[in-house]
Design goal:
Keywords: Transferase. This protein has helices at residues 20-28, 61-67, 80-90, 102-108, 112-116, 143-149, 153-157, 173-196, 206-213, 215-223, 260-270, 285-290, 292-304, 308-314, 328-332, 335-340, 380-386, 391-399; strands spanning 9-13, 32-37, 71-74, 95-98, 123-128, 201-205, 242-246, 252-256, 321-324, 343-347, 353-357. It is α/β, with parallel strands linked by helices. The strands form 3 sheets. Strands 3-2-1-4-5-6 form a 6-stranded parallel sheet, sandwiched between helices. A 3-stranded antiparallel sheet has the order 7-8-9, covered by helices on one side. α1 crosses α8 and α6 packs parallel to α9. The model has no long low-confidence stretch (mean pLDDT 96).
């Protein structure tokens, strides 16, 4: 693997997933990411095991996901000694990464001016719930609220028949997307600094990411003065070849065959209904659109008469975009996922084997080499020695509680 971030040091003062996952991606790309944690509590996401949300002895996948490959340094930033040690680390760093709120940063002496006084070339990166400005800048939030609900995503994906908006597809859904975006922005800021010498301040938020992900829908709703953008309903799809169909064994096939005139003959032939090619109702895109309820009924019946295995065999040579709607666990063994190394095998600090999805880019066609998340304060001594402290000095800091 090409460690494109080799030689870059990131100091991260952040918790949970949004923002820390950006640090994990940079670590995966070769950066030295120092995760700063409180000596006693650490990142609260470590507590998911003791809280009962993750069984004892199981891998804490929710901590591993955003903290892979980092080094943990436990400092009490509320103490003068802990803050001084952090500033010594800041002096050696290229990037400072945080999701602390404005009031907390000010109280802890972690604002832009505080850090630039020590290192005027550091790239200062903030991720927040709803942005750094406005009346709500000091409010916290999670991706379920700021990314999913506030952006209109929850409302727009929920069927009219549902009594409540749907929740996100899974945990850390918006966090992971947002973290990837922050990692890309940091890469751009590093390039800018290399070319111009200017160190930038970088901002993103879960609300910004949610709005971006819903960009086409938001623009369309505004352009046509609609509170809600029209939703696609399986039983009334405008183009029946852009739809989802159920097999005889209760699995689903997703079709996206936009050029329906091109794909219709091959599709219905593979489904064993070649007579549909010349049916007067179905001879063109226009007639299929006019009779789309009939088309959907014909396709529903055809798919419903075959199992998933039979569909896969029949569709082996079908021209056009289609796929099985997979369960999350099936993705692990998806042949294309395996062939391209999209999921890595790891072992946590307790010798438990597990898998993690790699960052969704590769350099020189080589999968990333992932390593586990650190134990709480695992690298405190080594990192402090790297910046010139003796072991006697480190022990003194441990005694007064400034470090773990």
């Amino acid at each position: 693997m090409v460690n494109v971030m080799d030689g870059i040091r990131v100091v991260e003062v952040a918790a949970w997933t949004y923002v820390p996952v950006a640090g994990a991606i940079l670590a995966e790309w070769g950066a030295d990411v120092l995760k700063i944690e409180h000596p006693e509590s650490g990142d609260p996401q470590r507590g998911l095991v003791t809280s009962g949300l993750i069984p004892e002895g199981a891998v804490n996948h929710m901590f591993e996901l955003p903290n892979r490959g980092k080094r943990s340094v436990a400092l009490d930033l509320k103490s003068k000694d802990g803050h001084d040690l952090l500033m010594k680390l800041i002096a050696t760093a290229d990037v400072f990464l945080t999701n602390f709120r404005p009031e907390a940063r000010k109280k802890l002496g972690l604002d832009v001016d505080d850090l630039r006084a020590v290192n005027d070339k550091i790239i200062y990166v903030r991720g927040s719930s709803v942005g750094q400005r406005g009346d709500e800048a000091n409010r916290g939030g999670y991706d379920m609220t700021s990314f999913w609900s506030r952006s209109g995503a929850a409302d727009n994906v929920t069927p009219d028949s549902s009594s409540h908006p749907l929740t996100m597809p899974g945990p850390a859904f918006g966090d992971s997307i947002g973290g990837l975006t922050i990692a890309g922005a940091i890469s751009t800021a590093l390039l800018h600094r290399e070319r111009t010498g200017e160190a930038l301040t970088v901002d993103s938020s879960l609300l910004a990411m949610g709005a971006w992900s819903m960009g086409a829908t938001i623009a369309g709703a505004h352009a046509f003065a609609m509170d809600r953008y029209p939703k696609t309903v399986q039983s009334n799809a405008a183009n029946p070849l852009v739809n989802i169909y159920k097999t005889a064994d209760d699995r689903f096939i997703s079709l996206v065959m936009l050029e329906s005139d091109r794909y219709w003959p091959g599709l219905v032939t593979a489904l064993g209904i070649p007579e549909a090619v010349n049916d007067p109702r179905f001879v063109s895109h226009a007639t299929r659109s006019e009779h789309r309820l009939d088309v959907i009924k014909v396709l529903d019946d055809a798919f419903g008469n075959r199992t998933l295995a039979e569909i896969k065999e029949a569709f082996a040579d079908v021209d056009g975009s289609w796929c099985v709607v997979q369960t999350p666990r099936e993705v692990v063994s998806d042949p294309q996922v395996v062939a391209n190394g999209y999921i890595a095998d790891l072992t946590d600090a307790n010798s438990v084997d597990f898998k993690l999805v790699s960052a969704p880019v590769q350099f020189n066609e080589t999968p990333s080499e992932l390593s586990r998340a650190p134990m709480h304060g695992e690298h405190t001594d080594a990192v402090l020695e790297e910046i010139g402290l003796t072991m006697d000095e480190i022990i003194e800091y441990k005694i007064n509680g400034a470090v773990l």
